[in-house]
Amino acid sequence: MIRRHRENIESSGGEDFDLIGGILLFPTITHIARSPSGIVASALLRIPRSAHIASAIVKALVYFIPSYIIYHLVRLIMRFPEHAARTTAALIKSPIGVKEVLFLAKDEMDMITDDKWGEEIWGAATDPGTNSKDTINSNLVFFWGQHDAWVARKTRDDLIKARGYRASLKKTTSLSSEDEWKPTMLIDEGRIPHGFCLKHSEIVAEKVRGWVEDIIYNHHEI
User: Fold this and answer.
1) What percentage of the chain has pLDDT greater than the value 70?
2) How many Cα atoms are found within 13 Å in the side-chain-facing hemisphere of 48?
3) Which residue from 18, 35, 97, 185 could staple onto 91, CB 3.0 to 4.6 Å apart?
4) What is the C-alpha separation between 5 and 14, in angstroms, rounded?
């Protein structure tokens, strides 16, 4: 999105909107296949026609089972809240849902490898930003879980070291002049999981509210 916005500005000579910041929650930026869950998924998805086989097996298992029973089984086994259990049950019973999920997972294993983001996204200290009032890169916030099954700890820490400013959630650390342009990168100090939307949405929403307010404040200060 940042890249496309910048390309539009360069091609048209004007702006259609101000892009003043971005917030990435539990992002897997590089090497998803090296994460704990990615290691398992990539091994299984390398099996020829694995998506077709798994989809056919699931279809056969649930064909005669009503959706409401699958819903209750999902709630019982996976401990999902009601809305998540209903969505999962509908996916399982859908004609091609399981196959599509597995194809998407295989594509992610193949595509999310090395850092493919260019300097137009990561930025540099002299970067003028995407609009006249902002340096977009200083208003990027990354937030990871302490223990995320879809993010390898080493690749996360390497990315922070190479590209970001590792801030404290307590906001007690001030930025040096050489770090001012870098994206803010935070690691959760609690136990919020990758699938935070299931049971931790309000906690994360409160954090996001604060980051959005900071981005807007910084934008107006420029």
Assistant:
1) 81
2) 0
3) 97
4) 10
